[in-house]
């Protein structure tokens, strides 16, 4: 009996599912509306539907892979759980002091600190102290820890964070504090900084640990409920969650360290982009994921995604390895509005899936990007395989009433204006990950996916000077596909200051070996054969007296004086590339890092079947479509994308319609279908 993997990506508007036969590599896709009030409902509904549609028994499912935004939304919407925090004496206000870059909210002239995720009255100081090298200077006051736990229990604070100074060097006090808390308060959920982020900088480490505690109850309940529901539906399989670094982790780790899933959903799309770019022989690419609620973009150079070790979520720093993804509130459901000053704005507010755009007929009353696309003929009145019927007249009426008339414009100019503003916002996001990082976007291909990405991709490419756009066969489920091709991956880090010229190769090797041992144990627990274990070493370095570090690969398998010298030379080169200069100054090694990864099964993008049609035979219809290039409507061939054979060439203007997305080929561009069904578009 064949075995299957199921990948489920829960977005703001739709839940996307890919079912993959692990024997034949046959893949089946499905979409179902998301259920924002309880994302697990959409998850389970879609899973049942895709299994039933393909006559697959629940017992045949070997892996369930999931991308989630539960942690993301809890942080961004300030909907986490109350947190209690235990810190050393003198550090009660570590979060309040923060760093000099305090966000200026609303009014740029005001200095307003956002509310911290833990209230000052819920922060308890206890006596303890360890030196930077791990030596214990002051014993832990165990009675004070017990008293704090009792107080949290009385006040019904169920999530507790512990962050002690220099615990990255010696975690004994934090481990003992956790044991004491659970003795006094067994139902509490405890996050300790030496597990969440074992690096220096007490503000960032404490904030990340607090955020982990802040989302832990919500994420753990969600994951445990999903696991229980899967078992109730006879799905007895492994259950893995996408991390922010583009790797998968087991549900048990995700429950203990939920902050690592902060970019779970967008990260899956980046991993899909890597596979798509590899199949199309594109070295440099920019992922462009435009969904119903937001747009996520990321840059990949030489086939490698960009990791950010100093990321943030909302206003809070999260110093964990995260894919460098820029997100803006602009998607198909983004609401267009005329401001009190008479200007047209689009987003960040979204109609989501409920009530959705006006054309959905579910109670939406505000014009959206999707309504504008419908009015301009860019999308069909039947989408999602005909399961969703769109009302073009309602879209036209609401744009006329709320946009065109107030701005004294005709209907189609107003709709085109909505798209232009949305496209400009997305160009800004792409510049954020390219131009502002020292990269020329013209040297990259734009890989467009998400339900709306391929409709806007060429417009965005034209604004950036990009000459290649790639739309995968199923753009609307690309993030779910990214879950299938991702490896299990976990990151380990430990601060160990090495100052010149007194580098200690033996101590560095000891720390690297200890982290690799942790990674090896984890991979074994996840069932990854040892022959598939992959370990990569990294080091954070800086010039003496610098306040920030640069991460470089430590490619050698053994730390010696010579390998340290090579790594330092790589640091100089990397610093020159990033900042335009390198200094003749001593270099410090600050933090050592290890990534542990492994693949439990190979899933590849399937090739197109034989017997598909030449492009002229795949024309389903023709309709009038508005393009800025033509300043009006022009006749446009509509192709059934599922019938297009490999090697097909389609000259714009043209539209390719599939079950999950629409691809727009603008005038002056041509599209080529490759053996995987990717549509590769270039200017004529």
Q: Your description of this structure?
A:
The protein is 31% helix and 28% strand. Helix 2 (70-76) crosses helix 7 (202-232) and helix 10 packs across helix 11 (392-407). It has 684 residues and is an alpha+beta fold. It has five domains: 4-74 and 221-261, Nucleotidyltransferase, domain 5; 77-214, Rossmann fold (3-Layer(aba) Sandwich); 283-467, Nucleotidyltransferase, domain 5 (2-Layer Sandwich), CATH 3.30.420; 488-598, Dna Ligase, domain 1 (2-Layer Sandwich), CATH 3.30.1490; 615-683, no CATH class. The two termini are 49 Å apart. The chain is globular, with a radius of gyration of 26 Å. The protein has 16 helices and 37 strands.
List the helices and strands and how they pair.
Elements lengths: L3 E7 L3 E8 L5 E7 L5 H15 L7 E7 L2 H7 L6 E6 L5 H4 L25 E4 L2 E2 L5 E3 L3 H13 L4 E4 L9 H13 L4 E4 H4 L5 H31 L5 E5 L5 E3 H6 L7 H16 L5 E6 L4 E7 L2 E2 L1 E2 L2 E3 L2 E3 L3 E2 L1 E4 L5 E5 L5 E7 L18 H7 L6 E2 L4 E2 L2 H16 L3 H23 L11 E5 L3 H12 L4 E3 L6 H8 L2 E11 L6 H21 L8 E10 L6 E4 L7 H19 L7 E12 L20 E9 L4 E9 L8 E3 L2 E4 L4 E4 L3 E5 L5 E5 L1
Parallel strand pairs: 1-4, 4-11, 5-6, 5-9, 9-10, 13-25, 25-26, 32-34
Antiparallel strand pairs: 1-2, 2-3, 7-8, 11-12, 13-14, 14-15, 14-20, 16-19, 17-18, 21-22, 23-24, 26-37, 27-30, 28-29, 28-30, 31-32, 33-36, 34-35, 36-37
Helix pairs in contact: 2-7, 4-5, 9-14, 10-11, 10-12, 11-12, 12-13
């Amino acid at each position: 009996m064949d075995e299957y993997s199921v990948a489920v990506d829960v977005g703001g508007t739709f839940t996307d599912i890919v079912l993959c036969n692990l024997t034949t590599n046959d893949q089946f896709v499905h979409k179902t509306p998301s259920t924002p009030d309880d994302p697990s409902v959409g998850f389970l509904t879609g899973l049942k539907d895709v299994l039933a549609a393909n006559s697959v028994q629940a017992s045949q499912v070997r892996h369930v892979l999931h991308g989630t935004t539960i942690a993301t939304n809890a942080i961004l919407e300030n909907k986490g759980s109350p947190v209690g925090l235990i810190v050393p004496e003198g550090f009660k206000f570590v979060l309040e002091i923060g760093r000099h870059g305090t966000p200026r909210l609303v009014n740029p002239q005001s200095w307003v600190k956002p509310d911290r995720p833990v209230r000052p009255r819920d922060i308890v100081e206890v006596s303890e102290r360890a030196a930077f090298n791990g030596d214990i200077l002051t014993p832990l006051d165990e009675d004070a820890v017990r008293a704090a736990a009792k107080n949290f229990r009385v006040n019904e604070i169920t999530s507790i964070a512990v962050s002690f100074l220099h615990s990255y060097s010696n975690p004994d006090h934090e481990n003992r504090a956790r044991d004491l808390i659970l003795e006094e308060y067994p139902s509490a959920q405890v996050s300790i900084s030496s597990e969440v982020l074992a690096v220096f900088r007490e503000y960032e480490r404490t904030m990340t640990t607090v955020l982990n505690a802040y989302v832990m109850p919500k994420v753990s309940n969600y994951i445990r409920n999903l696991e229980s529901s899967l078992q109730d539906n006879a799905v007895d399989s492994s259950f893995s969650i996408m991390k922010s670094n583009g790797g998968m982790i087991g549900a048990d780790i995700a429950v203990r360290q939920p902050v690592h899933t902060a970019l779970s959903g967008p990260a899956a799309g980046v991993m899909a982009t890597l596979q798509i770019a590899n199949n199309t022989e594109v070295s440099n690419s920019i992922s462009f994921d435009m969904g119903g609620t937001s747009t996520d973009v990321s840059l990949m150079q030489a086939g490698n995604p960009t990791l950010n070790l100093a990321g943030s979520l909302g206003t809070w720093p999260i110093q964990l390895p995260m894919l460098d993804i820029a997100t803006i509130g602009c998607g198909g459901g983004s609401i267009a509005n005329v401001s009190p000053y008479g200007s047209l704005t689009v987003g960040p507010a979204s109609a989501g899936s409920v009530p959705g755009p006006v054309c959905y007929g579910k109670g939406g009353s505000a014009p959206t990007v999707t309504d504008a696309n419908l009015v301009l003929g860019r999308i069909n009145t039947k989408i999602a395989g005909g399961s969703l019927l769109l009302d073009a007249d309602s879209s036209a009426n609401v744009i006329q009433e709320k946009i065109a008339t107030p701005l004294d414009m005709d209907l189609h100019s107003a709709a085109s204006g909505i798209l232009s503003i949305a496209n400009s916002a997305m160009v800004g996001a792409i510049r954020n990950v390219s131009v502002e990082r020292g990269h020329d976007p013209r040297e990259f291909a734009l890989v467009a996916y998400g339900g709306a990405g391929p409709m806007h991709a060429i417009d965005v490419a034209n604004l950036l000077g990009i000459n290649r756009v790639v739309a995968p066969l199923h753009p609307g489920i690309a993030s779910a596909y990214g879950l299938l091709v991702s490896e299990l991956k976990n990151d380990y880090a430990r601060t160990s200051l090495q100052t010149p010229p007194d580098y200690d190769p033996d101590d560095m090797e000891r720390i690297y070996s200890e982290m690799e041992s942790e990674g090896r144990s984890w991979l074994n627990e996840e069932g990854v054969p040892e022959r598939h274990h992959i370990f990569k070493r990294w080091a954070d370095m800086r010039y003496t007296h610098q306040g920030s570090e640069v991460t470089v690969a430590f490619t050698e398998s053994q730390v010696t004086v010579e390998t340290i010298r090579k790594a330092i030379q790589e640091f100089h080169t990397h610093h020159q590339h990033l900042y335009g200069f390198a200094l003749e100054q001593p270099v410090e090694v600050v933090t050592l890092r290890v990534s542990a990864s492994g693949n439990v099964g190979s899933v590849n993008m399937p090739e197109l079947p034989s017997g598909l049609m030449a492009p002229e035979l795949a024309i389903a219809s023709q309709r009038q479509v508005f393009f800025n290039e033509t300043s009006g409507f022009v006749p446009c061939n509509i192709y059934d994308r599922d019938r297009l054979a490999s090697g097909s060439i389609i000259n714009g203007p043209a539209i390719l319609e599939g079950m999950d997305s629409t691809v727009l080929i603008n005038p002056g561009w041509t599209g080529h279908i490759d053996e995987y069904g990717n549509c590769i578009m270039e200017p004529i």
